[in-house]
Amino acid sequence: MAGRDDLAKIAYEMQAYREQAQLMQQQMANIQLNYASLESAIQTLENIKKINKNEDVLLPVGSGAYIKSRVENNEVALIDVGAGVIVEKQIPEAVLLLKARMKEIDSMRDKLQSGFEDVSKKMKELEESANKLVEKMKTDKGQASKEDKEVHEEYR
């Protein structure tokens, strides 16, 4: 019975790690979306400097959507600095701020990837343990059957 209890424990742990890995994958997907959004914002800010004042442009607002706009000032951008606070920044300063955010996201992604690899390794170890346990249970059962046959033969 101990083997079955051990298998149940391993199955429970595997399920917990599976859920943790799934959550990590979702977090990595969200991080990738944020990263892509920052890349797009940086590209837009860098291109806006090349546009003449009072020139009409299509301004990307995300998800393939654009608005018609007129550039009145191509030297400053409005940037969310957190907690809903928006400040005016010179475009080069805004780009640097966004690039710093990208570095933070890179760091978070690296930590999350490392954690995901650790969870995957633990899952592989548990799978190997479960396989060994199943083989042992099969061997023990086969041995018990063989002993039963021998006892049966003895009493014939």
Number of strands: 4
Strand content: 15-25%
pLDDT averaged over residues: 88
Radius of gyration: 30 Å
Q: What's the helix count?
A: 2
Our count of domains comes out at 1
Query: Residue ranges: pLDDT <50 for 5 or more in a row?
Result: none
Structural class: alpha+beta
Strand arrangement across the biggest beta sheet: 1-2
Please give the CATH architecture.
Orthogonal Bundle
* Helical amount: over 70%
What is the level 1 CATH name? Mainly Alpha
**Any idea of the CATH topology?**
Helix Hairpins
What does this entry look like structurally?
This protein is α+β, with helices and mostly antiparallel strands and 156 residues long. The chain has a single domain (2-137), classed as Helix Hairpins. The protein is built from two helices and four strands. The strands form two sheets. It has a two-stranded antiparallel sheet with strand order 1-2. It is rod-shaped and about 90 Å long. The model has no long low-confidence stretch (mean pLDDT 88).
Describe the structure in brief.
The protein has 156 residues and is α+β, with helices and mostly antiparallel strands.
Q: What's the SSE blueprint?
A:
Layout: H1 2-48, E1 56-62, E2 65-70, E3 76-82, E4 85-90, H2 91-154
Antiparallel strand pairs: 1-2, 3-4
Which properties best describe this structure?
single chain; 2 helices; two-stranded antiparallel ribbon; 71% helix; alpha+beta; Helix Hairpins; 156 residues
